[in-house]
Amino acid sequence: MIIAVRKILFSVILFSAFSIYVSGQKEVDVKEALPYPSELYGEINDKIDRGLQYALNEVVYNNKKWKKLVSQKRMAVGLVDLRDMGNPKYAAINGEHMMYAASLPKIAVLLTAMVAVKENCLNYDAALKKDLRLMIAKSNNAATTRVIERLGFDKIASVMRDPKYNLYDIAEGGGLWVGKKYAKSGKRKPDPLKGLSHAATVEQVCRFYTLLAYGKLIDDYYSREMMSYLIDPQLHHKFVNTLDKVAPNADVYRKSGSWRTFHSDSVLVFGEDGRKYILVALINDAQGSKICRNLVTAAEKVLGLKDEAQLPNTDNKSSRTPVLTSTGRELP
Question: Is residue 168, in this structure, part of any structural domain at all?
């Protein structure tokens, strides 16, 4: 009788251990794929990390040109570390400073189109799918204009200001805005804060990609749809020029923009060797494209992906120097 009971207990324990192991394996598999579980999403403003912010400040302010551009509000940078899906980390410089962003805000058109499709007020036909891919992968202006004409500026603005996304908020410095077709002429619906036609802040672009990474842009299905348009960019300049060299096998979700001296880029990188991050830059300088190329290397150093630059230890509060966020607030 006692032997029989022991056998039963052993079987229960063995089954439980196996179940835990299988469950653990499933969790590992989930970590290796996007989107992450939506229930783990947290607002990046609540995820500002002291060590990451300190390292980003160091790499930017130690470059004389970058420091000057930042001080003149002509450069903004945002970085999100996605390696721990339950605890993403965020840092930014001039994060809430809205700038002209050229074609980067076409991601706002992409999201609005998906919202309209879900609401059954836009036909998800072959023509739309083709235009969305041209708009994102090749930054085709004619394709973007066709999509905007099907949506309207009011619809784009309403989606950006929708509390579910809050990608444009005057109280937070503005954000993503599209108020003009990507054409030489046409009516304008400038943003109400600065009067810009195509605008962004690095904070709201970082939020866009973070929401996307957690399946929170509409829902998991439509987040995946948007990722299918953003992956495999066809313009291999700025961020992608460097990523092609340092991470050729990584999944790269990207949208950039250029007009005169305005250069912008945004990327969600998901690959091996710890390359799971979001990087966004807005720059107003003739050398902006080159700065973008160099920012990828700088960001990977900040993340500790390069041996020569690890995140500093800031646990010793008695000896540390103040670390400021992009809005000038000292981190605790």
Answer: yes
